[in-house]
């Protein structure tokens, strides 16, 4: 027989599970009434009503004025998440800047800032990120912030050209450093997982979507049934040593044709420098200059087609309902070449058409917005715990 403590813990988990189902449904599907919530979640109307009452008392939900009645019966009172009284923050360490933004639970921008990177060590970069996040917290109000998300670039280990960047901070060190400075819950994840969550919560993504992020590394993450799969340290991160069909580029792991040596910006940069298309010391951004050259276009086009050959292999293993490709692949023509190759190769592999597209969602606060989705997902997974944590931060500090 369960002890009183175990029974209490079970009740708390059940309450939080119901609260999570309610909050997640409202964020995804918009304002809903209690009966609609019961129907969508499969939770009894009585339990829904009781949990909604608790969430309303905590300020995690709001009631809107019911629309004019269209017939007999009691009008439905829509429930929604607050606008600016509950916010999520997202931060990002770029090689040249540090940025942070605050967003509503629907992903609407409240405020954001970006400052030139000044730190020259990992510790300095972490501290300047914490200072910027703290400034945003102060601006929007400590009580409004439910959590903070930060992304790590998950770039490859470097050997020679190009050198490692100061922005490539260790994720554990980043989490620890932020927690030393900030009182809010902090979630640190690879950037591709943040983008998968952003697409699901705020970008109209479906329930089964594979996200492929192309940049200094190639990473993958998958949403299935509303949850990120492949949970755990580094989960859904790099696919560095999947072999690209037809590639002859040697990898430092000893294989030939790995994604790391063939498809990443780092690999592309090494080839551009080695062939004289770019001078030594060039950065990844130099692969995409405003004043483009035919040599760089050929290099990027070949990389786009290599991606088109290897991404279908990953898709055939995880069988997603939809695949989105993100990152700075190249010009629109190079992106089209990549997507066309994916479709062609996928049909050859599995015998059916692929639902795949390039996700081009440009905004100046692109990375903070994605990072904030990490905090949103954590909040919606355990809203009652986060509300309790938020309430504790509002208590006055006793003076000794």
From TrEMBL:
UniProt cross-references to Gene3D superfamilies, sorted A to Z: 3.30.420.40, Winged helix-like DNA-binding domain superfamily/Winged helix DNA-binding domain
InterPro entries on file: ATPase_NBD, ROK, WH-like_DNA-bd_sf, WH_DNA-bd_sf
Entry superkingdom: Bacteria
Pfam families according to UniProt: ROK
Sequence similarity: Belongs to the ROK (NagC/XylR) family.
Name used for this protein in its record: ROK family protein
Organism, scientific name: Occultella glacieicola
Organism classification: Bacteria, Bacillati, Actinomycetota, Actinomycetes, Micrococcales
């Amino acid at each position: 027989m369960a002890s009183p403590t175990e029974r209490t813990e079970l009740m708390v988990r059940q309450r939080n599970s119901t609260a999570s189902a309610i909050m997640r449904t409202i964020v995804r599907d918009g304002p809903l009434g209690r009966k609609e919530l019961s129907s969508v979640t499969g939770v009894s109307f009585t339990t829904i009503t009781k949990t909604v009452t608790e969430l309303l008392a905590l300020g995690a939900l709001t009631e809107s004025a019911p629309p004019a009645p269209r017939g007999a019966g009691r009008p439905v009172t829509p429930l929604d998440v607050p606008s600016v009284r509950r916010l999520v923050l997202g931060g990002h360490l770029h090689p040249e800047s540090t940025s942070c933004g605050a967003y509503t639970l629907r992903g609407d921008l409240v405020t954001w800032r970006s400052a030139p990177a000044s730190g020259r060590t990992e510790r300095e970069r972490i501290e300047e990120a914490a200072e910027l996040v703290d400034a945003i917290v102060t601006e929007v109000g400590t009580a409004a912030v439910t959590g903070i998300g930060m992304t790590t670039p998950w770039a490859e280990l470097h050997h020679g050209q190009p050198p490692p960047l100061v922005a490539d901070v260790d994720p554990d060190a980043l989490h620890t450093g932020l927690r030393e400075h900030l009182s809010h819950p902090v979630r640190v994840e690879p950037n591709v997982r943040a983008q998968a969550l952003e697409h699901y919560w705020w970008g109209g993504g479906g329930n089964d979507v594979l996200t492929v992020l192309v940049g200094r590394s190639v990473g993958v993450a998958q949403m299935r049934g509303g949850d990120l799969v492949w949970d755990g340290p580094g989960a859904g991160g790099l696919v560095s040593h999947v072999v690209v069909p037809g590639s002859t580029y040697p990898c430092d792991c000893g294989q030939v044709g790995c994604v790391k040596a063939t498809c990443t910006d780092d690999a592309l940069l090494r080839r551009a420098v080695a062939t004289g298309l770019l001078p030594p010391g060039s950065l990844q951004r130099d692969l995409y200059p405003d004043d483009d050259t035919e040599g760089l276009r050929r290099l990027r086009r070949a990389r786009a087609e290599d991606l088109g050959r290897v991404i279908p292999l990953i898709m055939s293993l995880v069988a997603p309902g939809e695949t989105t490709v993100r990152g700075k692949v190249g010009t629109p023509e190079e992106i089209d070449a990549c997507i066309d190759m994916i479709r062609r190769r996928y049909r050859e592999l599995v015998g059916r058409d692929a639902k795949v597209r390039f996700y081009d969602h440009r905004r100046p606060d692109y990375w903070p917005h994605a990072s904030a989705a990490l905090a949103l997902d954590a909040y919606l997974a355990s809203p009652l715990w986060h509300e309790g944590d938020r309430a504790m931060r509002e208590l006055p500090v006793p003076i000794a």
